[in-house]
């Protein structure tokens, strides 16, 4: 069998070549950081705590996985924050948005059940079954459910991207980042956000349609009518 050999990349030998290499590396780093910078700037004055977030009709809770059909600990923290805001009279309706792409996996219904156990009436919960990613959830909140303003609830490592994308989708947004244990999932989420910032910037610029758009749904409007 013929042995395969790999050549090491040759570094430029001239000062001019070395200078160009350094400039290329620096330019690459800047370009890589631009989406994350945009994300931070877009969301910087939109972050609040549960205690000082403005009163808003709708809270949006993004899915974060299920464990044996129940909300994962990260998702449970988000739902706890939403329930607290509802009980405090800071929001009237909770829009739960998540993945229901398979018959045996239903984030929105699991989120609904959890919220009703924690004091949110079923009639004040609206389900978005096609929130396959953050951009899809934001666009559908605006175009399908008619949400113009919302409090977004997620972990701190995700909330800036959520706010930046919902702002880009036309939803006036405030973000509440909930506490989370700094475990392996937290570190993974933080690292993932650096990569996800690039896609988020492209979504904000090109504004693609969600994977599934569908017809307009009056769920939020009806839920708000019951609150009056």
Shape: globular
Q: What is the radius of gyration computed over CA atoms, rounded to a whole number of angstroms? A: 21 Å
* Main sheet: strand order: 1-8-7-2-5-6
| H/I helix tally | 7
Query: Main β-sheet: number of strands, strand sense, barrel status?
Result: 6 strands, parallel
Give the SSE order as H and E letters.
HEEEEHEHEHEHEHH
Domain DUF218: 57-174
Transmembrane segments: 21-41
Protein name: ElyC/SanA/YdcF family protein
InterPro entries: Cell_Envelope_Assoc, DUF218
What is this structure, in a nutshell?
By secondary structure, this protein is of the alpha/beta class. It has helices spanning 15-43, 73-87, 107-117, 134-143, 156-168, 184-206, 219-227, and strands at 47-48, 58-62, 66-67, 70-71, 93-97, 125-128, 149-155, 172-178. The strands form two sheets. It has a six-stranded parallel beta sheet with strand order 1-8-7-2-5-6, with helices on both faces.
């Amino acid at each position: 069998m013929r042995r395969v050999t790999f050549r090491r990349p040759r570094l430029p030998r001239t000062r001019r070549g070395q200078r160009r290499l350094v400039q290329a590396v620096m330019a690459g780093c800047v370009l890589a950081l631009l989406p994350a910078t945009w994300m931070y700037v877009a969301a910087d004055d939109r972050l609040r705590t549960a205690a000082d977030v403005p009163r808003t009709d709708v809270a949006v809770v993004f899915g974060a996985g299920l464990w044996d059909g129940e909300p994962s600990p990260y998702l449970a923290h988000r739902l706890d924050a939403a329930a607290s805001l509802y009980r405090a009279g800071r929001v009237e309706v909770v829009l739960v948005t998540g993945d229901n792409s398979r018959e045996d996996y239903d984030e929105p219904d699991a989120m609904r059940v959890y919220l009703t156990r924690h004091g949110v009436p079923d009639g004040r919960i609206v389900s978005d079954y096609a929130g396959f990613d953050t951009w899809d959830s934001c666009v559908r909140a605006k175009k399908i459910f008619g949400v113009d303003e919302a409090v977004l609830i997620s972990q701190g490592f995700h909330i800036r991207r959520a706010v930046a994308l919902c702002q880009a989708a036309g939803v006036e947004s405030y973000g509440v980042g909930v506490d989370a244990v700094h475990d392996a999932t937290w570190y993974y989420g933080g690292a993932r956000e650096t990569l996800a910032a690039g896609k988020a910037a492209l979504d904000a610029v090109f504004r693609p349609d969600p994977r599934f758009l569908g017809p307009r749904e009056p769920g939020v409007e009806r839920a708000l009518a019951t609150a009056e």
